[in-house]
Amino acid sequence: MQFIVEIAGKAKSYACLLLVLLLAGCSSARVPQSSLLDLDAPSLAAELASGNVSAETVTLEVLARIQALDDSGPRLNATIEINPDALELARALDARFRQSGISGPLHGVPVVLKANIDTGDRMVTSAGSLALANNHAVDDAELVTQLREAGAVIVAKANLSEWANFRDNRSSSGLSSLGGQTRNPYILDRNPCGSSSGSAVAVAASIVPLAVGTEIGGSIVCPAGANGVVGIKPTFGTVSQDGIVPIAHSRDIAGPMARTVRGAAMMLTVMQGLPPYNLERDDLSGLRIGSIADYSGAGISPEVDTLFNQWQDQLASAGAFIPESLRLDIPTSINQANFQVMLYEFKADLNSYS
């Protein structure tokens, strides 16, 4: 059964129609066979920094791919709204590049933001809800400011589980009243997981190499796993909460979603306001990595367990120290206590959100 609600998607389709007519000569929408959007973020950033490709060209390809995959074809519904200023922003970056070079480590790289993250532009911050369909933020979330300063082009906002899935015990992952049902690009009728469903699908479908998700408990890492991309839930407090439609201030955190670990690391350093990290580092001496032996799902899939162990061995061979048999004994009562905290904070935080 398909649950599709097309409201915001219509505006996206019309916005992209002229673009597709120009690029495809009035032919029906086809998936662009773009090698650019198959690159991970560091590789695409290198192409942009070398002048081999312009930010405008990359942005045009992103918009064409949204039209081919979101508004027609498989109708993934990964995005909920296109930034009407995306091409203008890309052209401004190209002009700056001609004068003084790149503007930062993400110069010209397209990024999709989860729709519960503020942008002080013509896009709305809806959290996927009709109740916030006209919610225009007065300014950018701090993490968005950092992305823009690094040269990223915010091309769209991503669909999500409405209200970041904090609305019902039987809510559907990736479903919102504004964006419809986000679909897993590998198997369209399978759960894309959530609540950062659209962010994960946008990366998995090569619409963009980078997206931002938010998480309290699994909302980045679950859709990343279900859609075959990399998602990082940062340590609490290392990424600003400013400008995120809240659930609970003691838990809300934004993090990167990317095609590769290199891309996720590149974006995370920008979101944290840190200097660029050496992505080619292969010596992990002195690094301690905790590996949970009794993680949820351990032992269910021999193939996953084998890969999990292989990656631990590879990290250890690079010099990392991984303690053996690290286990967490977490009482089940913590779940109910956690829920009570979220209920209390949600009411207070949402009332103070502006």
Structure summary:
The chain is an alpha/beta fold and 354 residues long. Helix content is 36%, strand content 9%.
Description:
The model is unreliable at 1-29 (pLDDT under 50). The protein has one domain (8-281): Amidase signature (AS) domain (Amidase signature (AS) enzymes). The strands form two sheets. Strands 1-3-2-6-8-7 form a six-stranded mixed sheet, with helices on both faces. Helix content is 36%, strand content 9%. It has 354 residues and is α/β, with parallel strands linked by helices.
Strand ordering within the main sheet: 1-3-2-6-8-7
Q: What Rg do the Cα atoms give?
A: 20 Å
Question: Domains counted in the coordinates: how many?
Answer: 1
Q: Which shape, going by the Cα principal axes?
A: globular
- Quaternary state reads single chain
Largest sheet: 6 strands, mixed
Give the amount of beta strand, in percent: 5-15%
The low-pLDDT segments are 1-29
User: In DSSP terms, counting alpha (H) and pi (I) runs of 4 or more, how many helices?
Assistant: 10
CATH class descriptor name: Alpha Beta
The CATH architecture name reads Alpha-Beta Complex
CATH homologous superfamily grouping: Amidase signature (AS) domain
Question: Which features characterize this protein?
Answer:
single chain; 354 residues; alpha/beta; Amidase signature (AS) enzymes; 6-stranded mixed beta sheet; two-stranded antiparallel ribbon; 36% helix; disordered N terminus
Write the layout of secondary structure elements.
Layout: H1 8-24, H2 41-50, H3 55-69, E1 79-82, H4 86-100, E2 110-114, H5 142-149, E3 153-158, E4 175-176, E5 180-181, H6 197-204, E6 210-215, H7 221-227, E7 230-231, E8 253-258, H8 261-271, H9 302-317, H10 333-352
Parallel strand pairs: 2-3, 2-6
Antiparallel strand pairs: 1-3, 4-5, 6-8, 7-8
Helix pairs in contact: 1-3, 3-4
